[in-house]
């Protein structure tokens, strides 16, 4: 029960706080941004791009990687919080220390998939890029072929 409450709290925090913390983009749009996050969810491709939309932040042992697209009240994207980050390598998503989720919110309704299994692999972390791959599942829905190049 405690794990479910923790996961629910994290999901609500991601929906409420992450969009508010998003870096603002400049008035110039670059459609060929090197910063991207892509994956496959249930046979459909999900893609986010842009320096203000795909980024990574490290604070001590905590790494947050965000790839999101926000349009009005609609949000689609991925959030990874790795509480045991020590540098490039593979991290198991366990829903407690290392958490991954997919959010697709339209207006006041949406879908949140919180990883109960899977991994994130950080292949490189050198300013201005962090690169990696990911896949995860909540036991019902799978996210596969995930890859990102985040502003770092």
Q: On the 0-100 scale, what is the average pLDDT?
A: 83
Helix segment tally: 1
Structural class estimated from helices and strands? mainly beta
Rg is 14 Å
* Helix share, percent: 10-25%
Task: Give a concise summary.
The chain is built from one helix and eleven strands; from the N terminus they run αβββββββββββ. The chain is mainly β and 152 residues long. A hairpin with a 2-residue loop joins strand 1 and strand 2.
Layout of SSEs?
Layout: H1 2-21, E1 36-41, E2 44-49, E3 54-59, E4 62-71, E5 74-82, E6 89-92, E7 98-106, E8 109-114, E9 117-126, E10 129-137, E11 142-151
Antiparallel strand pairs: 1-2, 1-11, 3-4, 4-5, 5-7, 6-9, 7-8, 9-10, 10-11
Provide tags for this entry.
152 residues, mainly beta, five-stranded antiparallel β-sheet, 1 helix, 13% helix
Overall description:
The protein has 152 residues and is mainly β. The chain has one domain (2-21, 34-151). Helices cover 13% and strands 56% of the residues. It is built from one helix and eleven strands. The protein has one helix at 2-21, and strands at residues 36-41, 44-49, 54-59, 62-71, 74-82, 89-92, 98-106, 109-114, 117-126, 129-137, 142-151. The strands form two sheets. A six-stranded antiparallel sheet has the order 2-1-11-10-9-6, with no helix packed on it. A five-stranded antiparallel sheet has the order 3-4-5-7-8, covered by helices on one side. It starts with a helix and ends with a strand. The model is unreliable at 1-30 (pLDDT under 50).
């Amino acid at each position: 029960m405690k794990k479910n409450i923790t996961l629910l709290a994290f999901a609500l925090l991601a929906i409420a706080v992450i969009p508010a913390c998003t870096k603002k983009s400049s008035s110039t749009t670059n459609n060929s941004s090197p910063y991207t996050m892509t994956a496959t969810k249930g046979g459909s491709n999900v893609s986010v791009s842009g320096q203000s939309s795909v980024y990574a932040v490290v604070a001590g042992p905590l790494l947050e990687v965000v790839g999101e697209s926000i349009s009005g009240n609609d949000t689609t994207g991925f959030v990874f919080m790795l509480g045991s980050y020590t540098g490039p390598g593979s991290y198991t998503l366990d829903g407690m220390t290392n958490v991954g989720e997919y959010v697709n919110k339209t207006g006041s309704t949406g879908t949140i998939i919180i990883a109960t299994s899977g991994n994130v692999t950080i292949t490189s972390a050198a300013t201005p890029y962090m690169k990696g791959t990911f896949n995860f599942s909540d036991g019902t829905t799978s996210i596969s072929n995930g890859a990102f190049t985040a502003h770092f």
